[in-house]
Amino acid sequence: MNDIEDLQPSMPDGSSKSRSSNNSTIVEFDDDLMQITELPSTFESISVVEMEGIEEVVKMGRNDLEDLQQRNSLSATSSKFASTNKSAMVGFDDDSLQIKERLIGQSSMLKIISIVGMGDIGKTTLARNVYNDSYIVHHFDIRAWTTVSQEYNVQELLTSLLNSMTDLGHKLYEMKIEELKETLNKKLQCNRYLIVMDDVWETNAWEEVRRVFPDKNNGSRIILTTRLSNVAVYADSSGPVHRMNFLSLEQSLKLLNKEVFGEECCPSELEGIGTTIAKQCKGLPLALVVIGGLLNKSEKTQAYWEYVAKNVKSAVTGKYDDFVEILSLSYNHLPRHLRACFLYMGVFPEDYVIHVSYLIRLWVAEGFLKPITPKSLEEVAKEYLEDLIDRNLIMVRDRSYSGELKTCSIHDLIRDLIVRKAQEEKFLHVMNQKVGISPEIMENQRHLSIHGEIRFDVGDMYDSTVRSLLYLADSLLSINICFPLLRVLDARNITFKKFPIEIVQLVNLRYIALIYTGKREIPASISKLCNLQTLIVFRRLWYDKVWILYLPSEILKMPQLRHLLFEQGFLPCPSDAGNGNLQTLTGVIDFRCTVEALQRIPNLKTLGISYRYDSRTKWSIYCLENLFNLHQLETLKCDFVPKSWRKPLVPLVVDLAFPPNLKKLTLSGCRISWTNMSTFGSLPNLEVLKLKDFDFEDSVWKTNEGEFRKLKFLHIGCNNLEFWEVEGTHLPSLQCLSLGHCPRLKCIPSEIGEIPTLQVIALFQCELSVVTSAYSIQEEQQDLGNDGLQVHNHNDFYKIGTSFRKMYMSNELDPANKLPVSSVPC
């Protein structure tokens, strides 16, 4: 099932500082999956000086910071401040143009323009560049800049704004807050003004001053820079947030060359290695500037550049500790309930694509989440993750068309910061070829993650404090599981030929993931793990076959079990009460959906099942019509596979009934009537429908008005569909249409292009006439001014089902082809 497949491993400027020099505390640093240092507050103003000067900042000692701050703490309208605009804004040209267009746009109403991105991605540099643009200077009557920072003082913030636009001098420091607000408001009245509030961390900071800024319908603007999306949305929920992205490789190389060579060209012998260095900076401007500053003052030889290429991260994060402290500001601002979740991201290897369902199950098992009634722990985990994303600490890799998070990742430099902080705090130790293990390291260690091809034997660890053991290595030659307090065991990269029976003694276990290729039964003693929440068992291919795994009936009696995922598991009926906590059940074959069976899993949200059949199959025994009784079910995947592929059968005609809360439905290998298609269309919450290796009873599909009201993603892989009749109003929410291996389909109806929400048409091994019709629809929409519709033609990419399904389902590969007499199918 896809759930199991998803689980497989993948491998700035502060011209008018608004706060005093008081010390601020800087704290460095859960799809199917704190050393605290004192840092002078002046550092934040330094971290946002112009990009071309950042290398001076990260190299200088703590004693020099205050001097540099004073040289850069200038009035927002001073000529010195304007003169700092020497940067060529490499990589920010498009961003700069977009911000300028919004500043001088046609709207006369007061507008707030928020620039959002992770620390030192260039938010302040962009804002400063636009602020000092000659046309912008001419366009606005008054301009003022203030840097807010994490610890702000409202009186100082107001004073700094007034100081930059009046000559009241010492009188400002004698005014109370309300007097300052009134004075500032009067000064801005009847003037077209531009205010920059740089580095805002709290919604309260905006709330304190927002009423000071009058809206006289004269085109005034406010620019706000922040690392936090919620701050940007709070300031103005009606306008779009401008998000800063990482630089492309071309932009990165251009910035690196500018820092190293200025206006000169890079020597040809250094171009290749220069590209390698730029790649390793992963599009982060600050990293490129730091490395550029290093290369600018060093030998410009190929040998030295190759050395730097191998040590980019150590040059950035090791040599310049201040760089780490800049990024640590984001961690310092995290609320307590998010810190453990954030530090835990260090368990994953560099560049690891993290499946959200996998991560959430780990967070739940680790106990990082605070229950919020009536939400489930999984729902709370999703909120935590979205919060970290909004803070620009975690990057979204992929979302479904329903908007649900599918995969995420973290920037390499953020990960290095996490690992450093986590290891200092004995929260996490990452073990690889370079970093081994010792009794000193293991003392009071809580989480252990193993990367790389290494041999690991922990020896006698019965007094260990380790609560999590994650084997994310490509190859592990030995394993010894003897951690009595263990909660999480993720051994998905280790093959067990014999089930590790010792784990049933680890009564604190909440999460188990492993590969088991031995005896085909899971021992009933697994039920002793009364705290177990997640059990995932992979079955690796041996000689082109996957043996069916037989599960004990006791498994559904485990009181805390929430997620049960297998590759081809046979589940017998429990003899008594089942599990009301179970949310996920996938990889189960020939599951009998009797009323009694479904009553034992009433809160199931995700179900993945498959059925083997031949000409003698009595379909009624599986009772699929009872699926309607799973009222909490949101995702259903159901495969129908012939037992023998040597004697192809006409696909089964299946009559199905589905619960109303269903959001995602995947069916493959069966044949349905048009009545069933109307059943699909009538599901009020259906957002994703995938029909694979499919046959209809008729070759013509005619959709009806009022059906598929919420459907966003539709995939059709149909062997006998020839004609499709549809109106532009029939699929009002459709965003993606995917067609795969429809050999008889002549064309896509032109009315599909009239669906206002449609963004993508994806084609896999379709006839030329179908491809032509798709491009014709795109051209027609472009002529009408709709440039958003994309067509993706993948004629060389299509998989019919999955290979292992053919293997384990066939009589020839499983000669016994029968179930144990003691296991009556559920």
Automatic annotation (TrEMBL):
<dbReference type="InterPro" id="IPR058922">
    <property type="entry name" value="WHD_DRP"/>
</dbReference>
<dbReference type="GO" id="GO:0009626">
    <property type="term" value="P:plant-type hypersensitive response"/>
</dbReference>
<keyword id="KW-0611">Plant defense</keyword>
<dbReference type="InterPro" id="IPR027417">
    <property type="entry name" value="P-loop_NTPase"/>
</dbReference>
<dbReference type="InterPro" id="IPR044974">
    <property type="entry name" value="Disease_R_plants"/>
</dbReference>
<feature type="region of interest" description="Disordered">
    <location>
        <begin position="1"/>
        <end position="23"/>
    </location>
</feature>
<keyword id="KW-0067">ATP-binding</keyword>
<keyword id="KW-0677">Repeat</keyword>
<dbReference type="GO" id="GO:0005524">
    <property type="term" value="F:ATP binding"/>
</dbReference>
<dbReference type="InterPro" id="IPR042197">
    <property type="entry name" value="Apaf_helical"/>
</dbReference>
<feature type="domain" description="NB-ARC">
    <location>
        <begin position="98"/>
        <end position="264"/>
    </location>
</feature>
<comment type="function">
    <text>Confers resistance to late blight (Phytophthora infestans) races carrying the avirulence gene Avr1. Resistance proteins guard the plant against pathogens that contain an appropriate avirulence protein via an indirect interaction with this avirulence protein. That triggers a defense system including the hypersensitive response, which restricts the pathogen growth.</text>
</comment>
<protein>
    <submittedName>
        <fullName>Disease resistance protein (CC-NBS-LRR class) family</fullName>
    </submittedName>
</protein>
<dbReference type="InterPro" id="IPR036388">
    <property type="entry name" value="WH-like_DNA-bd_sf"/>
</dbReference>
<dbReference type="InterPro" id="IPR032675">
    <property type="entry name" value="LRR_dom_sf"/>
</dbReference>
<dbReference type="InterPro" id="IPR055414">
    <property type="entry name" value="LRR_R13L4/SHOC2-like"/>
</dbReference>
<dbReference type="Pfam" id="PF00931">
    <property type="entry name" value="NB-ARC"/>
</dbReference>
<dbReference type="GO" id="GO:0005737">
    <property type="term" value="C:cytoplasm"/>
</dbReference>
<feature type="domain" description="Disease resistance protein winged helix">
    <location>
        <begin position="347"/>
        <end position="418"/>
    </location>
</feature>
<keyword id="KW-0547">Nucleotide-binding</keyword>
<dbReference type="GO" id="GO:0051607">
    <property type="term" value="P:defense response to virus"/>
</dbReference>
<dbReference type="InterPro" id="IPR002182">
    <property type="entry name" value="NB-ARC"/>
</dbReference>
<dbReference type="Pfam" id="PF23559">
    <property type="entry name" value="WHD_DRP"/>
</dbReference>
<dbReference type="Pfam" id="PF23598">
    <property type="entry name" value="LRR_14"/>
</dbReference>
<keyword id="KW-0381">Hypersensitive response</keyword>
<feature type="domain" description="Disease resistance R13L4/SHOC-2-like LRR">
    <location>
        <begin position="466"/>
        <end position="761"/>
    </location>
</feature>
<comment type="similarity">
    <text>Belongs to the disease resistance NB-LRR family.</text>
</comment>
<keyword id="KW-0963">Cytoplasm</keyword>
<keyword id="KW-0433">Leucine-rich repeat</keyword>
